[in-house]
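Changelog-adjacent note: as of this version, every example in the card shows the full chain rather than a window. The one below runs 287 residues end to end.
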Amino acid sequence: MKTAAANKTGMTICEEDFLKFREYFYRKSGIYFEDCKRYFVDKRLLERIDATGSESFRSYFVLLRFETGGEELQALINLMTVNETYFFREEYQFQCMVTGLLGEIVQYKTNNSPLRIWSIPSSSGEEAYSIVIYLLEYWPGIHLWDVEVLSSDIDTRIISLARRGVYSPRSVQHLPPYLLTKYFTPIGCNYKINEDIKQSVEFTRVNLMDTSDVRAYRNFDIIFCRNLLIYFDNLSRHLAAETFFDALNPGGFICLGHSESMSRTSSLFRVRKFPEAIVYQKPRQDI
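Full-length structure tokens:
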């Protein structure tokens, strides 16, 4: 039987305080913790209470809400978010990108504007770097088009790791050996991604639930947002769908995780079935 989480002084989080915190964190991040996550949440809350020297949940909660710079909220978000991924995860969508999506996008691109791809959440960078490697290896058009890859996350700590570009053997275990040799340099037991790949991705911090944060994110042709919406409730998922709709060019595509569905969230997008994957498209005016 799992006991309640406690800090060094034996402090625990009562039900009333948990509910208060859950509502606050949801409003700030769009992430809603089910009751089954209670131990996880309590443990990390108590870590921050210890780290800030707060004497109680109440004093910590006051600090969290009224700190002008928002540093403690960001520290807590960094601690509460889950960042687990690896290179070439759900590879079938990268195959779909190079065999179906990009060919259709360039067919209707009537200007010389760059192809823009947004990966969110970035986590520690595996997905964004996988996109670049996949384009270089498997898309003939990479030599004809200017491609921009942007990757964003709410967690500033994980963005720093993404920019560093050093990965454990577990992160690269699904890469074919020749790609590991071609694009990485061994460092001790780990692997560092080559500098030219690292420089090809721009990493930014963004909170999808903050309209001032997402206002500048526009004119994307493809968005990868995989395994994020499962942490949102229906309202937050709906708001995220509207953000992605505004961020995409007409005819642009969004790829979700295998257990996620845009159809259950929003009617804004058209369902498209390709041989490799089901994706969602912002309609063009001619379709």
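Structural remarks: The first strand starts at residue 115 and ends at 119.
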